User: Fold this.
Amino acid sequence: MIGFWARLSYAFRCFFAILSSAEIPQDIASALIKRVAETTAATGTAAPMATPRSKTVDTSVAESVDRAVQMLGLLQRDGRLIDFLVEDVTPFPDAQLGAAVRSIHTSCRQVLERYVELSPVIDSDEDQPVTVPAGFDPAAIKLVGNVAGKPPLRGVLRHRGWRVKKVTLPSLPQGSTGRAIVAPAEVEIL
Assistant:
């Protein structure tokens, strides 16, 4: 498995690279493909026949970027989330900010409920004791605090986590890859 700090570095680099150029950095794509090939060779399963420049990789990366942009577009269209996040809110009084947040929260929650089905990673009440089993998925459960010893470990659930169960985004228009527009500019003609 790739170490935590390497995964974190990959995540940040990919996030900003996708935002700026709609592409995953070549060194990360190559490293991940190499890692998949090594893992499949070690387990005896057939390794995928793909190179970092293959059409399959480029298509799936482009579609995942398009879907991410589409989700941001839906949150902007219905909840004005992007407008809110890029706005400097420090000059606004708390009461005015609270009123705006309530509306944005309601609208964005409706978008999530409509297009994404979520479930907790651990279906238990927060601040209650839980046991983390041996062989747990470190991408799904983050251990914090005084972490020592080997699982199973007992601790207190601080956050249930979220897992995507189902995504039902509308179909993308045919031939619309390489999307970068979250929301179009609006110009009123006078």
